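The instructor's notes for this session suggest beginning with a concrete chain rather than abstract definitions. Hand out the sequence below and ask the class to guess, before any prediction is shown, which regions might be ordered.
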Amino acid sequence: MKIAVIGNGGGGKTTLSRHLAERHKLPLTHVDSIQFLPGLKVRPQEETRQILNRVADTDCWLIDGFGPLDVMERRFELASRIVFVDFPLWRHYWWATKRQVKSRWRPREELPADCEEGTLAHTWQLYKILWRVHTVIRPQLQEIFSRPEISPKVLLVKTPREWKAALDRD
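After discussion, reveal the predicted structure:
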């Protein structure tokens, strides 16, 4: 089984991914743990591509997050299931804000060491990323997910109720 979990920030992808990986006994890869180096430095994109493609070439996996578009497309082609968390933009902003506040006391486990996210500067940058993902990347994802070879694999999650149902879906 190969599961890709994708969606804008603050949508609960990581929590969902952890649960699904445990339920299906899949190795879990967080794209953020690959894209970022200690101190929130960005890994060179070609290196990120190579690492993510190596993971996608294995027999079973759950990959949580984005990465370069060409790598995501390849991952979607290889996946047996794609979970697309697509809440309204306001919910992504709200839940991302709550995550930012919590990160002041407890950093996200999936990030490398010394990744300080709870600053005002990082929060502002995150808000710009949420907007860009919603207005630029989301339409690209929707186009990819409409392809006949990919659309049957997509589970669209648009509400918290659907998110909870995705936890128990086989």
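Then share the key points. The longest helix spans residues 120-145. Residues 14 and 157 are 14 Å apart (CA to CA).
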